[in-house]
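Re: the 231-residue chain
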Amino acid sequence: MDCCADKREPLCQRTTDIFLRGMRIRMRQNDVLKEGTMMKIGYARVSTEEQNLDLQVSALTAAGCERLFHDHGVSGATFRRPGLDDTLTQLCRDDTLVVWRLDRLGRSLMKLVELIESLDKRGVRFQSLTEAIDTTSGSGMFIFHMMAALAQFERTLISERTRCGMKVARDRGRKVGRQAAMTPVQCAQALLLSDTLPVAELAEKFKVHPRTIQRVLRNARTPSQHASQDD
């Protein structure tokens, strides 16, 4: 009994070793397949038709980009561009979006941070060659977080300036907020026509909502009512 047990133990051990070796091989093969599906996609942009994309294309190709998209003669102020839209559509999980320089992607720091954060939620990495921003590395993520902090600071400043500006305007007696739907002249015309035209027709004539006409008429008639009560 003991002799048979001694023979079976090496056999079981060898079987286990072969199984584990096969598992390791399959895991390595899966890793290779996963790495093979990752793609670097480059994006380039120039603002004017006179500029050329050669420098950016060369740098992106040297960085290992397998596909390139571009916008020629398009401002970086807008983030709605045909080439950029195509780029974002093609990106899949574990892909990397590569640009030559950050401002080629866009000129608004806040919009840049929002775009890169949206890519991160999709599992897409980002790399800017000139600024050495690479969200796959610790140092690259640190630089990106610094950018995000600056963008948040910029948002806060804009908000504070807006609130301060509105307060100053109110203190000086200026009306702030949304522009009135009807000018004073249109309000006077609506009041004159209200005796002969219903609210719906007045709204259609002045291209406003019927509630706007009702509010204008109510505001115009209220003082006269107060005046008659005072008399």
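Residues 25-36, 224-231 have pLDDT under 50 and may be disordered.
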